[in-house]
Amino acid sequence: KAPIKYPVDWLFWLIIVLIILLVLIGLYFLYGYYKKKRAGTEVQKVVVKIPPYKIALKHLSELEEKKLWQQGKVKDYHSEVTGIIRRYFEDRFNFYALEMTSTEVLDKLKNVKEAQPIFDKTRDFLSNADLVKFAKFQPMPSVNEEMMKQANSIVRQTIPMESQLFEEENVNA
Are 121 and 150 in contact (CB under 8 A)? Predict the structure, then answer.
């Protein structure tokens, strides 16, 4: 016997394909509407950038409260205080001070106009810290206190003028 042939109803299949197409087009437009509606409700995040000098001064005061050198951790104290100043130099003067030797940092500072007032102080500061960190030098307590004073002075002397004026206006208001 020959196989039985069913008649193909082209009209039925055409209606099925049209229904599928209409459903897909509807889903496409719903997705577009949902995406547009959702994009309109996104909240813009406001990023507040804290000036580098405020960060450095905050970290220096936190280090002072730790009292590392009073606990006999002189090397850790000097490493942290120089790390804070190096991070400050990175943020303030835009060079990678954490990855440089003290000599390289001083060479970079020599070329920065805003850093000229602190150049000699920074050279002394970094050389004292290098003696403690690498030559196992045990400084007197007065030297440790002076390191903190020098670090604060380095930061305060390099605060941008516009920041100083802005803070003076806020204090007077």
Answer: yes
Decide if pLDDT at 172 tops 90.
no
Helices (H), 7-140: 10-40, 52-66, 74-93, 102-110, 119-134
Going by the DSSP 8-state scheme, the letter that residue 160 receives in this structure is -
The contacts of residue 81 (CB under 8 Å, 6+ apart) are: 60, 63, 129, 147, 148, 151
pLDDT tens for each residue of 18-75: 999 999 999 999 998 888 777 766 566 778 888 888 999 999 899 888 887 778 888 8
d(CA 108, CA 123): 12
Residue 55 makes CB contacts below 8 A (sequence gap 6+) with 87, 88, 91
